[in-house]
Amino acid sequence: MTQDTISCELHDFVEVACMYGYRLKLILKNNQIIEGKAVEIVSSPEKQEYLVIDNDSRQHIELIQLAKMEVLTPNAKFSEVVFQ
User: Fold this and answer.
1) Cβ atoms of 18 and 32 closer than 8 Å
2) pTM of the complete model
3) Which strands make up the sheet holding 80-82, listed edge to edge?
4) SS3 of 18, please?
5) Sign of dihedral through CA atoms 78, 83, 39, 46?
6) Rounded-to-integer distance, Cα 78 and Cα 9, Å
7) Tens digits of residue pLDDT in 29-83
8) Nearest in space to 13 (alpha carbons), one of 55, 69, 72
9) How far apart are the C-alpha atoms of 49 and 12, rounded to whole Å?
């Protein structure tokens, strides 16, 4: 069985990042690094969820591809989340 969702607790951290428009450094499971401002979470017709990141253009990152999320915004409510 493949993992097609993240836990509610981890999802909440992504929602908070979007709500406050935090600048993030994302490390994906394939070791790709993406930086940008968290904008929103969107769902595809197939029920996959994506974090929309604004880094001069908008990128959609599937939530299940996240390995680590570092917050670059000073005085944020949290600094780092590791996705298992």
Assistant:
1) no
2) 0.92
3) 58-62, 49-54, 33-43, 23-28, 66-71, 80-82
4) helix
5) negative
6) 13
7) 999 999 999 999 999 999 999 999 999 999 999 999 999 999 999 999 999 999 9
8) 69
9) 13
Angle, vertex CA 28, rays to CA 26 and CA 29, nearest 5: 155
End-to-end CA distance of the chain: give it in Å, rounded.
15
In a domain, 9, yes or no: no
| CATH classification at residue 56 | 2.30.30.720
Decide if 3 is inside a domain: no
Residue 18 lies in domain: 14-73
Distance of alpha carbon 77 from alpha carbon 80, whole angstroms: 10
Amino acid occupying residue 56: D
9-26 pLDDT, tens digit per residue, is 999 999 999 999 999 999
Let me know if residue 80 belongs to a domain. no
